[in-house]
Automatic annotation (TrEMBL):
Lineage: Eukaryota, Fungi, Dikarya, Basidiomycota, Agaricomycotina
Main location: membrane
Record organism: Kwoniella europaea PYCC6329
Protein name stated in the entry: Amino acid transporter transmembrane domain-containing protein
Polar residues: bias regions: 1-10
Region annotation (Disordered) ranges: 1-38
Molecular function in Gene Ontology: L-amino acid transmembrane transporter activity
């Protein structure tokens, strides 16, 4: 039966770690030996994977994700915090430039997502962007890209905690210290994230998608029928000002672009998703479906909210509606915010987990060591994300900084270089198609570097200015953050 798994029975094949590890030890002979396979010598149904080693019935099955579940996880990884910042980006850029930037970023990052899948098929031993770093640049490549990947995921998790603290404050009318709400968010997300495999938490992805979509649909409907947005001044002396094309400063424009990049910056998680798929060759299908649905939702939500709220958009956007509707929106969104956070904690923790146990039999067996390392990784990841959330307690500035400093590096530059590296000596080298594809990847690559440098500068300038103006709450503050904009 052809299920995309090659058969081999060599001892090298059965090593529970990747090609990069074997190369380091001088054992590497042929990249083909790293492909996952069913080994008849180990018995029926025992899968030998290039990353997970031998997957047996008494341990977690890390290769059980269908393409539909993979699509749901991709959508939930992306559609969450990012969508709550898009109306603000439209307010800065204007309607038409906002649409153009969203479509452009969707195409660039969509290409990067596709490259993740093809690279995994070519190099089955890859599980995270750190493995890619080792393959492309050696030891330091693995450590630098691995740290950037891990830091990005942890930082976005911090933004999840921050948004949940806003939600709790909104719903309860600041019944307790904001730090307490962030701790509550950390405990909820950490507990759910400890479920061991992505396949088992995919149903939470469905719940999260339904939660976020019901929340933003409620927001759009309420804005369409209400008299005015919640941030509009009292009285009748106000009007909504929407622009076809705005004229922002360079700093503001780049910050808006980085907010949009953040909304697509789930690409590093896709390595883990394709790494746990039952049929990795179906990954492209999941990317096309996921990216199309995601971009459609982004455009509709951002355009509708901006049309009805104009300059009176709260941050996150769910606070744009009236007092009562705002509570309803955040109540509906809470499961979605938690689901997005748990996938992030799970992914960041599993990166460390695999790094620690990759050469060990404990990686895919239910041993005390397996559980101790796993729960330790979950706990440390959650605590560090909480610290980030409380150290930078302002939503738009935080997601802009993450999008610029980390989002582009491991969502654009890395993947475009991966394609160039894989195809530099391709059989069709020198053809028109080869030159066209090479040119496209080089252009995308340098667009990423431009946004990284300029976006990081713009985010730092904005954060510094907001602190000086007193527009931001202090780190680890108990103050109510539900009215932040």
């Amino acid at each position: 039966m052809d299920n995309g798994i090659s058969v081999s029975t060599t001892e090298t094949d059965r090593e529970p770690y990747g090609l990069a590890d074997r190369a380091e030890e001088g054992k590497l002979s042929d990249p083909e030996v790293a492909k996952p396979h069913l080994d008849p010598e180990l018995g029926q149904g025992k899968l030998v994977d290039a990353v997970w080693g031998t997957i047996e019935g008494d341990g977690p099955n890390y290769r059980s994700l269908s393409w539909i579940k993979a699509t749901v996880l991709q959508l939930k990884t992306q559609v969450g915090l990012g969508i709550l910042g898009l109306p603000t980006a439209f307010n800065i850029l204007g309607l038409v430039p906002g649409i153009i930037v969203i479509v452009a970023i969707a195409l660039i990052v969509g290409w990067s997502d596709y490259v993740v899948g093809t690279f995994k098929l070519n190099h089955p031993e890859v599980y995270t962007v750190a493995d890619v770093g080792y393959m492309l640049f050696g030891f330091w490549g693995r450590e630098i890209l691995g740290f950037a990947f891990w830091l990005q995921i942890v930082a976005v998790t911090g933004a999840s905690f921050l948004s949940m603290s806003v939600a709790f404050n909104t719903i309860t009318e600041h019944a307790t210290c904001t730090v307490v709400w962030a701790i509550v968010a950390m405990v909820i997300i950490g507990a759910l994230a400890s479920i061991q495999t992505l396949s088992r938490i995919s149903w939470l992805g469905w719940l999260g998608l339904a939660s976020i979509m019901s929340s933003v649909i409620t927001l759009m409907i309420s804005l369409g029928v209400s008299d005015k947005p919640s941030l509009a001044p009292a009285g009748d002396d106000w009007s909504i000002d929407t622009k076809i094309a705005a004229t922002p400063s360079f700093i503001d424009a780049i910050n808006a672009v980085c907010i949009i990049i953040f909304s697509y910056a789930g690409t590093p998680n896709y390595f883990s998703i394709v790494g746990e798929m039952r049929e990795p060759k179906d990954f492209t299908k999941s990317v096309i479906v996921g990216q199309t649905l995601m971009t459609t939702v982004y455009l509709v939500v951002a355009a509708v909210v901006y049309h009805y709220a104009g300059q009176y958009i709260a941050s996150p956007a769910l606070g744009t509606a009236g007092h009562t509707i705002k509570k309803v929106c955040y109540g509906l969104a809470l499961p979605g915010l938690a689901a997005g956070g748990l996938i992030l904690v799970h992914t960041a923790a599993k990166y460390v987990f695999v790094r620690i146990l990759r050469k060990s039999a404990h990686l895919s067996k239910n041993t005390p060591t397996h559980y101790a390392v796993w729960y330790g990784c979950i706990s440390i990841t959650s605590i560090l994300a909480f610290v980030i959330a409380e150290a930078i307690p302002f939503f738009n500035d935080l997601i802009s900084l993450i999008g610029a400093l980390l989002g582009t590096l491991i969502c654009i530059q890395t993947e475009t270089y991966m394609w160039v590296w894989d195809h530099w000596r391709a059989p069709n080298r020198g053809t028109k198609k080869w030159y066209a594809m090479m040119t496209m990847n080089v252009i995308f690559h340098f667009i990423g570097w431009f946004i990284l440098v300029s976006g990081t500068y713009a985010a730092v300038v904005t954060i510094h200015k907001d602190f000086q103006d007193g527009a931001l709450s202090q780190p680890f503050s108990c103050a109510d953050n539900s009215g932040s904009s």
